[in-house]
Write a structure and sequence with these properties.
The protein is mainly α and 279 residues long. Helices cover 73% and strands 0% of the residues. α7 packs antiparallel against α8.
Length: 279
Amino acid sequence: MEPRPRSFYILAAFFTLFLIFLYGPTITIAILSFQGPTGGLTFPMKGTSFHWFRDLFEQQAVGDIWGSFSRSFLLGLMVMVTTVVVSVMGGLAFRKRFAGSSVLFYLIITSLVIPSILISLGVGLIWSQSGLTVHWSTSGFGAQLTWTLPFGLLIMFAVFNRFDASYEEAARDLGATPWQTLRHVVLPIIAPSLIGVALFGFTLSYDEFARTLLTSGSHNTLPLEIFGMTTNVTSPVIFALGTLTTLFSFVVIAVFLGVVWLTDRRRKAKGSDAGKGLV
């Protein structure tokens, strides 16, 4: 076996340092969340326990943790569904050139380069000046869509640029209606990409701070609640909350990956059954 080149070890060391830089803070928070009852926010640790995790589930005056979590979760689901539906519709629409398509495309992308805090300020002002109530489910919802929709549309543009239209032609030749072609041909083929768009939509919404800061009204989402806790909570309970929210994020990712795996497995099974039927 030939020895590896020096560049391999340099790149491996760089990648290791990158992982430490990326996950080091999260791991540190997770470790400190297991401080003993008399522990503080820094090392050295004063014993180990689950005290601060239990403290999260008890009645306390550290903020509306579970209320803010439920709001972030519901808002994430709303943004996820809307992002998937609009992204698919936009991807289908942009398959053919139409008047103003280039202008519309650049208008969509522009929201990614405008500072998030300005988006939040602008949406909040529009709502308040229009006499509407600034609320996380209305103005906050709209502000977050300016962040998730461009990502979803870019993914769908890439998917449909590589989509083989012959599948749709074959379905139409067999008598399928446009809706049947979309439902039974197009959507099953692009299903893994749709799951990816859904994951993007949910996670980007769930941890969004700047675009929700001035559009959530009097009820905080979880990122805003955690930010508020940093100014008045001086115990490791905030680390325990951070650890649980991180675990929740990993669970969400695992669920979406599991759905992708099951979808791919079912599609291969159907293909295998169809192949056996032709034999």
